[in-house]
Amino acid sequence: xxxxxxxxxxxxxxxxxxxxxxxxxxxxxxxxxxxxxxxxxxxxxxxxxxxxxxxxxxxxxxxxxxxxxxxxxxxxxxxxxxxxxxxxxxxxxxxxxxxxxxxxxxxxxxxxxxxxxxxxxxxxxxxxxxxxxxxxxxxxxxxxxxxxxxxxxxxxxxxxxxxxxxxxxxxxxxxxxxxxxxxxxxxxxxxxxxxxxxxxxxxxxxxxxxxxxxxxxxxxxxxxxxxxxxxxxxxxxxxxxxxxxxxxxxxxxxxxxxxxxxxxxxxxxxxxxxxxxxxxxxxxxxxxxxxxxxxx
Length: 296
Description:
Elements: H1 2-8, E1 12-16, H2 18-30, E2 39-44, H3 46-51, H4 59-68, E3 71-74, H5 77-86, E4 93-95, H6 109-115, E5 122-128, H7 136-145, E6 152-158, H8 166-171, E7 178-182, H9 187-191, E8 196-199, H10 208-214, E9 220-223, H11 228-231, E10 238-241, H12 246-258, H13 260-277, H14 280-295
Parallel strand pairs: 1-2, 2-3, 3-4, 5-6, 5-8, 6-7, 8-9, 9-10
Helix pairs in contact: 2-4, 7-12, 10-13
């Protein structure tokens, strides 16, 4: 980072995650003469605050990285509040939401459905790294509670090994209802065939996977936690339920599976919201303005 800054005369190092990237940027800056030192902008994500921020070993390093940054941003108002509550931050935190610019799918919708051996089932999609906070157990329980078992398939785009959940899938009798794809690169191919997103997290700083689905006109059923209500307008671009209310989760999911017209209306609103509020066109200028400000 120091070499690139020196060789290319960088004005700003914009780093995501306080540990390790902001700490590395601050060290790199200190290796350069004062006249060549770039400004450091740090964007915090959920693990910085909600996981590492509570750790006595990491908390002081995160606090130091923020104190040495020229500007700090978070991806949601929720994460800003949590950061202010858990960490000593001496200067303002600016909220600039995540954005997503989808690539064009490489294959047609029909090709992907054939690959997955789908007939006319509604595709209920979940994408995550499967960490405990994602509560895959609640997701599988909700799927098992849907009465019309032949009306849907759950497509799990897993960023990690799904094998720890195989036993639960078997116990709930979902072997013929759940499709798991691990470490998918061309996620747009699968987002385009998704009809409903399902997210049962107990905490989220933003939930980029919901936004990714929204870009393809896929509304989500999600828990009303963390920054999710900043992404999904309940009843307009998706549907939110209280965390832990399994009955509400099942009923809401069934309603969307059974009512394609409502799915389509929510999907249209979701796509428009993604374009208006969470696209590169909407968000990148806010970062550019921040860079101008810290360099002034």
